[in-house]
Design goal:
heterodimer; A: Rossmann fold; 3 domains; eight-stranded mixed beta sheet; 12 helices; globular; B: alpha+beta; 4 domains; eleven-stranded mixed beta sheet; four-stranded mixed beta sheet; 20 helices; 39% helix; disordered N terminus; binds zinc ion
Chain lengths: 484, 648
């Protein structure tokens, strides 16, 4: 380990404090702790010696996380770089030695232009793919401009001429219909400008909603649209970020695909990423690197350092075809909801949606697509009020099959339409999109059931139920056999 | 300038070390015993070489503040190692693989760490803040280790009265076990990752190799005395850092055994001294400032044919051979650094680690006195490199890309030589010299762990921990020796977790010191070595046994068998066990009868040799009396009987 000082080289110890800035000066401190700081005239980023009943602690005063208690000050110890918390009620005085101003910026390096290489555009929505670390707070600073990205992932320059545009700066959970529509428009513009492919940087949590939305909102793609993110921020040396980005950019630049895909780790190992069809993919783990899985189908392809290895048959996915003209169809009616059925669900759940003006409801039913009887009157009421009901399965894998049991037949009779093996989230996005076109029930139904790109499949492949926990030898072997 | 000591006397004298400005600091890493790991709920051992899945990762350097990869990062990235992790499904979960955030820090480990920090008289922190310490060598799948400080500014007294400052006592997760490291592929077993590790770091106040060794030993003994130190292979690892006047800190990692520390640190000081001499020599030759041009040429196959087998083989295999000319370097590469190490080994070490050319020899050079290269090869290389009479050529061979890296590294090392000693981590070799392991990391590799909440150390927690501070083992050992206990017992008992029990029973005069000492410091160890597990017998049970030994319920001679049985039923109480194995003391009649039978037997079977006769009789008597009465008493009776017989 290293016990030399941990102060970054670009910090300057200045003897005088800068003008007060209450928001920054006591960042995270409240109650007793803040009172003490105010009394002693100390602020965050001051170099101090905390004199306590058990001895002196020299260090830099750090900001505190907002949720922490008000009984401790946090300092980074001068002599070993570790952070420690010191109890406020043991501190007898605070000696202020100076103030360490940090100046963080990501170095810009010119992204090299090579006329022989394909042009790729990276559209940013707010997720950090590449980033740099603020060593003092542990926060990551996103790298986004081509220059910043080049500084962080120089391999990109071997693949394409990269340009970037930041469309939004949102956490994944805040991305919704306006962003989907905005993205679709920008993608169309970029394709018309002649890019070889589009990469969309996105937080991972809702990435699959965006993938479905883009599939519907911009059709007939001549080039790949690849959505990418990272499950581990790139301050981690073993982050998936750089690999995901390199492989997504490579897919956009040279991949023989013409549809919206998600490009994320296949196994937890670095071996390869999977290209998932935008309508069949779902985030299936809160933290695993290989969180994204194609459901009830197989991924389109595997991509690694050597290139692309299709998993689907050649005729089962759309190929790059520059003669295609992309069709923009960016509409969305937001009065749509998903109801995740659970035993003993009361009809008021449905009723309140109806009463609040919702026009479309996706039910994620149990088993083959069921809900209990007490809901029937509420559904009936909704249908009569013009609300469109569709059934999906909360098992995620498999089809809705409402003819098998009486329950199913009864529910269909109420006016609920089964959506085969469309995923609940995809059905939600599609219904909002369809209702953006029409509210005419028969037409809504027709459009919902008319497959745009794989959201309903005619058949489920025998290996569509592989929950690939990459790295486990038996599944990798299976996969290898399948690859040829 | 001549070396200040001969190789025979590598350990030198205190005056030598003073003159050289020897400074040394140590870090001891010791696993502590807990049920579960530090940041997840996997079991904290034992290891297993079985594995059920393998995961591949690479470690990519992250940018430092100034947007440049720092020294270590750059170096590790250059190696582009494939890192393979072997996972055992019972010993590793998704946390270790960095596929799950950490769980709350293990409170059992924190409590024990608090006690240890107090044992070193540290100032305690009031809130633990977990930070990440970056490692790019692959030993941790995340690329960083989670670690925190428990206490700072402790003290370690040495036997010469000096007080060494303990900079910190930290609590951190152990790293993976390296299984193999060949070329571009390194394999780790992940089971060890996450076992709590105590880190004790001293100031660099040790002023001689001997002092450093004592420091490491004392820290180890103090940790053992707390009773929380894990035993077994790899449970303790120490790093020592060494510098001399005019040099910079060099760390020797993973020193396996304490007796080697004086030799390792002495050799390292000597190496540094030599490097400083080489630097002076470079200055003298005008190789100190500005550019360090080297010529590098790729040797194409056209008709050149080497004698040296490695080069021949490389040519056959179609590998690249590169020749580098170092101007004005005659006599430097063969300069003896320490032991059998030459300056050329500095280059070889870098090439091995950074270019992954790890089959030795991995370089040849023309600055040789011995017959490593014959005249034919020397001439060939010198001519190809266009070496003047004061120049030296270095040859590297292997896969093309690796040789490019090798050439760059040789150039870097050559430039660094003009600075004297490089800031690096080195590994210990068998002959107590060292070899390059990696460049010392920059300060930016520690940063807050945003996944962990602060953990409060309440006053109650510290007060509770204060109850568990052991007496210094060296003080205790001295006390036991003065009591007349044998050295081995005194030494072992001083760091045993039975020491307090022993002291209490002695104070009560409940048992003889030597008897209790034998049990606690010899018999238990002997049985453990034979594979009997006595760890489940509680302190209270041991207390009953020792009291029984004191009041004649059980005898020394019967202890071995008794304990063997007890190890199989460790939950039984002492009295129950006595009853169950009918270990009841023999009465006077029985003893007299058995002794007389035994004497009879000895007379019948042994002629004339009294000593032998006594021995045979003793053996015969103890077959039925073992454990039921004191063996010394039986011996005395037999001996008296036989000697009286003769005198008649
Ligand atoms: Zn675990």
């Amino acid at each position: 380990m290293n016990n030399e000082t941990s102060i970054a080289q670009d910090e300057i110890l200045s003897p005088s404090l800068p003008p007060p800035n209450p928001e920054e000066d006591y960042k995270g401190y409240k109650g007793h702790a803040r009172k003490l700081l105010e009394e002693k005239g100390a602020r965050v980023w001051c170099e101090v010696v905390l004199e306590t009943t058990s001895g002196d602690f020299p260090g830099i005063l750090l900001p505190r996380t907002e949720t922490s208690d008000d009984r401790h000050l946090v300092i980074k110890l001068t002599y070993n770089g570790y952070n420690v918390g010191i109890a406020v009620d043991t501190i007898t005085s605070i000696k202020i030695l100076g103030y360490r101003k940090a100046n963080y910026q990501i170095p810009e390096k010119e992204f090299p232009f090579n006329p022989g290489m394909p042009d790729v555009v990276l559209l940013g929505t707010g997720g950090t793919i590449a980033s740099r670390l603020d060593y003092r707070t542990g926060a990551v600073i996103p790298a986004f401009s081509p220059g910043e990205l080049y500084g962080a992932v120089p391999e990109l320059a071997d693949i394409c001429n990269l340009s970037t545009r930041k469309l939004y700066g949102e956490f994944s959970e805040n991305i919704g219909p306006p962003h989907w529509m905005g993205l679709a428009k920008e993608i169309k513009k970029e394709i018309e400008n002649g890019v070889a492919g589009v990469v969309v940087g996105h937080g991972t949590d809702t990435m699959h909603y965006t993938a479905a939305a883009l599939t519907f909102m911009i059709q007939n793609l001549p080039v790949p649209v690849v959505i990418v993110g990272s499950q581990r921020s790139s301050d981690r040396p073993s982050s998936d970020a750089a690999y995901n980005l390199i492989r997504a950019v490579n897919t956009a630049a040279t991949g023989d695909f013409g549809e919206v895909m998600i490009c994320m780790f296949g196994p937890t190992s670095d071996y390869y990423d999977l290209l998932h069809r935008g309508t069949r993919v779902r985030k299936m783990h809160s933290s695993y690197r290989s969180a994204f899985r194609t459901i009830s189908d197989v991924p389109i392809a595997r991509v690694d350092d050597k290139g692309f290895h299709p998993i689907k048959h050649d005729d089962a996915y759309r190929h790059r075809d520059h003669s295609q003209i992309p069709e923009l169809d960016a509409v969305f009616d937001e009065r749509v909801s998903i109801v995740w059925y659970y035993p003993n669900m009361q009809p008021d759940v449905i009723n309140s949606l109806i009463d609040n003006g919702y026009k479309g409801i996706i039910i994620a039913g149990t088993g083959l697509g069921h809900v209990n009887k007490p809901l029937y009157p509420a559904i009936k009421r909704g249908v009569e009020a013009g609300v469109q009901f569709f059934m999906t399965v909360q098992t995620l894998w498999g089809y809705v099959q409402m003819f098998v049991y009486d329950t199913g037949r009864d529910i269909m009779e109420l006016g609920v339409t089964p959506l085969a093996n469309m995923l609940p989230e995809v059905a939600y996005v599609k219904l909002g999109w369809v209702l953006g076109h029409t509210h005419e029930p028969a037409e809504v139904k027709r459009m919902m059931l008319k497959t745009i790109n794989g959201e309903i499949t005619e058949r489920e492949p025998i290996d569509g139920y592989l929950v690939m926990q990459g790295g486990l030898p038996e599944l990798d072997d299976y996969f290898k056999r399948f690859q040829v | 300038m001549e070396a200040f000591y001969s190789m025979k006397n590598i350990l030198g004298t205190p005056e030598d070390w003073k003159r050289l400005g020897f400074r040394c600091g140590i870090e001891v890493h010791h696993q502590i015993k807990t049920e579960k790991k530090l940041f997840c709920r996997c079991p904290a051992g034992p290891y297993s070489n079985e594995w059920h899945a393998e995961v591949l990762r690479h470690m990519r350097p992250t940018m430092s503040e100034l947007g440049e990869y720092d020294g270590t990062a750059l170096m590790e990235f250059k190696t582009k190692k494939e890192i393979i992790y072997r996972l055992h499904r019972d010993k590793v979960c998704t946390y270790e693989m960095d596929d799950n955030p950490p769980f709350q820090i293990n409170e059992e480990a924190v409590d024990k760490a608090l006690r240890i920090a107090l044992t070193f008289k540290c100032k305690m922190v009031n809130e633990l803040h977990v930070i990440r310490k970056q490692y790019l060598d692959g030993s941790i799948p995340a690329g960083f280790q989670r670690t925190c400080i428990i206490g700072v500014d402790g003290v370690l007294p040495l036997s010469n009265g000096k007080e060494v400052r303990i900079i910190q006592v930290g609590l951190e997760e152990d790293s993976c076990r390296e299984i193999s490291d060949n070329g571009h592929r390194i394999v780790f077993a992940v089971d060890r990752l996450g076992i709590p590790l105590i880190e004790v770091v001293t100031d660099k106040t040790f002023e001689s190799p001997q002092e450093a060794a004592e420091g490491v030993q004392r820290i180890g003994r103090l940790l053992r005395a707390t009773g929380y130190a894990n035993r077994g292979i790899g449970a303790v690892r120490q790093d020592v850092n060494v510098s001399i006047n005019g040099s910079t800190r060099v760390e020797i990692k993973g020193v396996p055994r304490i007796p080697r520390i004086p030799y390792l640190t002495a050799h390292e000081a000597r190496r540094q001294e030599s490097l400083l001499q080489i630097k002076d020599e470079m200055v003298r030759r005008g190789l100190s400032s500005g550019e360090f041009p080297i010529d590098e040429k790729k040797l194409e196959g056209n008709g050149i044919s080497f004698h040296r087998p490695e080069l021949k083989a490389a040519q056959m295999a179609g590998d690249t051979i590169r020749v580098i000319r170092l101007p004005e370097s005659k006599g430097l590469l063969s300069w003896q650094l320490t032991g059998i190490r030459r300056f050329s080994d500095e280059f070889s070490g870098r090439v091995r680690v950074i270019a992954c050319l790890d089959q030795k020899p991995n370089i040849f050079h023309t600055d040789v006195e011995s017959a490593v290269l014959d005249d034919h090869d020397l001439k060939l290389i010198n001519e190809f490199a266009r070496c003047g009479k004061d120049d030296v050529a270095i040859v590297v061979w292997g896969p093309d890309l690796d040789t490019i890296t090798a050439v760059k590294e040789i150039h870097i090392r050559w430039e660094e030589a003009s600075q004297g000693v490089c800031n690096e981590t080195r590994q210990a070799l068998r002959d107590n010299t060292t070899d390059f392991e990696r460049v010392l990391p920059g300060p930016d590799r520690m940063y807050p762990d945003t996944d962990s909440a602060p953990f409060e150390i309440t006053r109650e927690k510290i007060e509770a921990a204060e109850q568990f501070i052991p007496e210094y083992p060296w003080d205790r050992e001295k006390r036991y020796l003065e009591m007349g206990l044998p050295e081995d017992i005194s030494r072992n008992l001083a760091i045993s977790h039975f020491a307090d029990l022993f002291d209490n029973l002695l104070e009560e005069k409940a048992v003889a010191a030597i008897r209790a000492g034998e049990v606690l410091a010899r018999i238990i160890t002997a049985l453990r070595r034979k594979g009997f597990d006595l760890t489940k017998i509680s302190l209270e049970q041991w207390e009953d046994l020792l009291r029984g030994l004191g009041n004649g319920k059980i005898f020394r001679e019967g202890l071995f068998d008794f304990l063997k049985n007890w190890s199989k039923k460790p939950t039984s109480g002492f009295t129950d066990m006595l009853g169950e194995y009918s270990i009841v003391p023999a009465d006077e009649n029985t003893i007299a009868e058995r002794v007389s039978e035994a004497i009879q037997y000895a007379y019948e079977n042994v002629q004339n040799d009294i000593e032998k006769r006594i021995k045979v009789a003793m053996g015969e008597a103890m077959q039925s009396l073992a454990g039921k009465c004191a063996g010394e008493m039986v011996y005395d009776r037999i001996r008296d009987n036989m000697i009286n017989d003769i005198s008649c």
